[in-house]
Structure to design on (222 residues):
């Protein structure tokens, strides 16, 4: 008999109720307005975002990484596995309850990734963190945001994927740094815009967990 899902926490947001649900000991999902955002069993593309986006840092002794979006912490865990002990990881998460979930009931899923001393969780919008960053502040920026670029993000002033936003991300990256973007589906206009912003762009399909997601990598030149 399949165990039912039970809601263990709920928070009101502008897009509807954000809920953390659990079934059994280690099966979790997060929903918003009843729609499933993520599950503990589907994590391959989030892990790939980190491993692909941080591969260029293998020889840097103390890289600085910014992650936009915490989710269940799988991207953070994969990033820590790819980074040296002297690395520093800043995670910008908009919803404080999500950070609390990752420190609490979700922590066993990632071995307490957000509790690692290399990690700092900042409650706020990653777009604001990037805008305030000093030039060349980061060696990599990973955007692991809900749905990623899509038709609704095509406007020029989109805070994450518009031309000005991409220019701000490029300015916040050190020479040779990488902006990695997770996307639920391919988005050709975004890919063209990404390249036009001065990045060398590669596109990676990540298969698994019943779907194919996209990881865009934009390398910043010297």
């Amino acid at each position: 008999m399949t165990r039912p899902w039970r809601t263990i926490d709920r928070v009101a947001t502008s897009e509807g109720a954000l809920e953390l649900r659990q079934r059994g000991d280690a099966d979790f999902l997060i929903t918003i307005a009843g729609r499933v955002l993520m599950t503990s069993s589907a994590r391959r593309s989030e892990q790939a975002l980190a491993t692909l986006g941080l591969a260029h840092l293998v020889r840097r002794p103390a890289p600085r990484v910014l992650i936009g979006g915490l989710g269940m912490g799988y991207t953070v865990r994969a990033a820590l596995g790819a980074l040296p002990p002297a690395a520093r990881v800043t995670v910008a998460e908009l919803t404080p309850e999500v950070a609390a979930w990752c420190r609490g009931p979700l922590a066993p899923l990632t071995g307490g990734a957000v509790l690692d001393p290399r990690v700092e969780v900042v409650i706020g919008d990653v777009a604001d963190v990037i805008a305030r960053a000093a030039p060349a502040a980061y060696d990599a920026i990973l955007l692991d945001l809900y749905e990623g670029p899509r038709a609704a993000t095509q406007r020029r002033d989109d805070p994450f994927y518009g031309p000005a936003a991409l220019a701000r991300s490029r300015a916040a990256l050190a020479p040779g740094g990488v902006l990695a973007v997770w996307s639920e589906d391919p988005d050709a206009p975004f890919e063209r815009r990404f390249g036009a912003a001065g990045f060398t762009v590669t596109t990676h399909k990540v298969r698994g967990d019943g779907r194919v997601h996209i990881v865009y990598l934009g390398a910043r030149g010297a």
